[in-house]
From TrEMBL:
Residues 2-71 form the UspA domain. Residues 1-12 have a biased composition (Low complexity). It comes from the Bacteria. Pfam families: Usp (PF00582). Residues 1-20 are annotated as: Disordered. It comes from Georgenia thermotolerans. This is UspA domain-containing protein. InterPro entries: Rossmann-like_a/b/a_fold (IPR014729), UspA (IPR006016). Gene3D superfamilies: HUPs (3.40.50.620).
């Protein structure tokens, strides 16, 4: 993913950590002084926030920076 972003001219790096996902992501965001968090949503048809996953919901609630939630493409 980071390689594709760099090819598109976007500065990006990846990190692999273990632990509870949301707290680990939030700690890494702080460590990197992130400007934005980007996460996915499994069901692209779910317009309601009730269908956002647990990790995404925690990021939305506790992140100190904006969180962009990207839906998975709908397969036809």
């Amino acid at each position: 993913m980071a390689a594709a972003a760099r090819r598109a001219g976007v500065a990006a790096e990846t990190v692999s950590q273990t632990g509870e996902p949301a707290p680990v992501v939030l700690a890494e965001a702080d460590r990197w002084a992130a400007d934005l968090l980007v996460t996915g949503r499994a069901d692209p048809r779910a317009a309601s926030r009730a269908y956002v996953g647990t990790v995404t919901r925690e990021l939305l609630e506790f992140a100190e920076v904006p969180v962009l939630v990207v839906p998975q493409p709908v397969e036809e």
